[in-house]
Amino acid sequence: MTRFAPLLLALAGLLLVGHGAYIHAKAYVAQILLERAFAETLVTGQVTKPWSWADTWPVGRIAINRLHVSAIVLAGSSGQALAFGPGHVEQTADAGERGVAVYAAHRDTHFRFVKDVVIGDEIAVTRSDGRTFSYRVDGTSVVRFDASGIDATSRGHELVLSTCWPFEAVTGGPERFLVHAVLEGPSSL
User: Fold this and answer.
1) Terminal Cα-to-Cα distance of the chain (whole angstroms)
2) C-alpha angle with apex 79: 86 to 83, nearest 5 degrees?
3) Exposed/middle/buried for residue 128 (C-beta within 10 Å: 0-12, 13-18, 19+)
4) Domain regions of the chain by residue span
5) 148-173 CB burial, b ≥16 within 10 A, e <16
6) 52: phi > 0 → left, psi -120 to 50 → alpha, else beta; which?
7) Count of H-run helices and E-run strands, the chain
8) Distance CA 39, CA 60 (A)
9) DSSP characters over 14-39
10) What is the DSSP string of 73-124?
C-alpha cells in the first residue's frame, strides 16, 4: 500500500486542480453570459436571464473607473446570485432613488476591489433601464452583519457596498466591510 501512496496523492492533487480549473472556467463563462444578458436588457428593456435556468438576472452594473473595475449586478442577494456577481439586496432602493441602494458580494471574487476604494472615489451605477447614477464615496466602516446601521428609510440618495470582513479571512465571520457613498447626480461615465 505504501508503494501506491505517492500515486494516490498525485491523483488526488490532479483531481483538486481539475476541479479548481472547472470552477474558474465556469465563472469566466458566466461573466460573458451575464454581460450579454445585461446588454440585451439595455437594448430591449426586457429582463433577460443569462441562462434559461438562472434564478436571477442582471439589474445593473457597478463601475469604479479609478480602479478600472466593473461588475454586473444581479437581482437579489441569495447565495446562488452571489456565486455569479454582486447582488442588489432585496427591499433596498434602486440606484438613483430615495433611500439606500445596497449591493453585496463576496470579498474574494466580485468585490475583491472594495479594499482599494478610498474616500472621494466615484462609483457609477447603471441600471437596467440604461440610466447611470454617480455616487461619491464618503466613508467606510466595519460592522456586525446584524448591526449595520443602514437606515432603509433614509430620505437621502445613498449607496452601500457590503462584503465580508476581514478581507484575508479564509472562513466567513460576523463582520462586514461597508463602503458608503452619496448621490452626486447622473454620471458622465
Assistant:
1) 63
2) 55
3) buried
4) 5-186
5) eebeeeeeebbbbbbbbbeeeeeeee
6) alpha
7) 2, 8
8) 10
9) HHHHHHHHHHHHHHHHHHHHHHHHHH
10) EEES--HHHHTTS-EE-TTSPPTTSSEEEEEE--TTTTTGGGGG--TT-EEE
**Prediction pTM value:** 0.86
**pLDDT one-digit tens code per residue, 108-164:** 888 999 999 999 999 999 999 999 999 999 999 999 999 989 987 889 999 999 999
Residue whose C-alpha is closest to residue 134's, from 180, 188, 68: 188
Side chain identity, residue 167: F
- Bridge partners, 125 (sequence order): 62, 133
Q: Would you say domain 5-186 falls under CATH 2.40.260.10?
A: yes
Angle subtended at Cα 165 by Cα 162 and Cα 166, rounded to the nearest 5 degrees: 150
Nearest to 183, CA basis, from 137, 140, 145: 137
User: What gap in Å lies between CA 167 and CA 138, rounded to an integer?
Assistant: 20
In angstroms, the CA 92 to CA 77 distance is 11
